[in-house]
Amino acid sequence: MTDTVRKLVRQRLKNGDYTCRKEFTLAMFSGKWKVNIIYHLGHEGTYYFYQLQTLLPNASHKELAKKLKELVADGLISREEEDGPRIKMAYSLTPLGESLLPIIDSMYDWGEQRLQELHMNNVPFNLGPVKND
Amino acid sequence: MTDTVRKLVRQRLKNGDYTCRKEFTLAMFSGKWKVNIIYHLGHEGTYYFYQLQTLLPNASHKELAKKLKELVADGLISREEEDGPRIKMAYSLTPLGESLLPIIDSMYDWGEQRLQELHMNNVPFNLGPVKND
DNA sequence: CAGCATCCCTCGCGATACTG
DNA sequence: CAGTATCGCGAGGGATGCTG
Fold first, then answer.
1. Band of the pLDDT at B34, cuts 50, 70, 90?
2. Are residue A40 and residue A2 in the same domain, yes or no?
3. Are residues A56 and A100 in the same domain?
4. Is the pTM for the entire model greater than 0.85?
5. Contact at CB, B18 and A119, closer than 8 angstroms
């Protein structure tokens, strides 16, 4: 899942079921590229669409647009048109999106530390039930 | 994704690409039911498999087993056999799993606060581009 | 009680292409 | 430059059933 969570959560909310706090938050940045988008916008400021494409070369044009649209719908980022010879779309974090940054940052830190541990123990790619307890 | 992240990350690590800290962490609890499992084990202690089934009535037997297996493989939870008339499997968080709790907890808090905002603004199920900036 | 295999359907997401 | 539509594959995950 990536993005299944988002659909499920929206469904539950529609049914008046608000008992899904963690999943709700998870749904904000689940879905491919979303964490990265939030992270970059949060730490480096506004980006144009075409800049994001360069930043995430593996993300297809379509998916990038789709994810940005969802992030806007969720209120995490804002979208502004900038005129010129060619129209450019500027994306940046909203205050709501910024409030999510600490969580993303701690995910970054946790991941970095854990990856170093795995690396040092010569467990290059086994995330497994090694003796890291 | 639910769980696509996990596969992708493992693949990247295999290729020696360690530049995926956030995604790596995300992969730990992405995938249906995982956040809940971690949360429950973290805050309420050890659970037997059949207790988890009761706790998460919507999770299928198969998926629950599968997710638990992955969590064990990732080193977040431990699995212990307990003999008796019927064998029971006891699951609990490892120290590594516990180190993830703060993140899950902040996700819980963020979600709770955001859901309250939405509720108060009479935006029962629209997660949308409302004027909550 | 718990794990794993099989069948099957849904949906995320990539590739490609058209529009303003 | 940016958004959206169409097609297609592959993976997540539900239902069911067998095994120890």
1. very high
2. no
3. yes
4. yes
5. yes
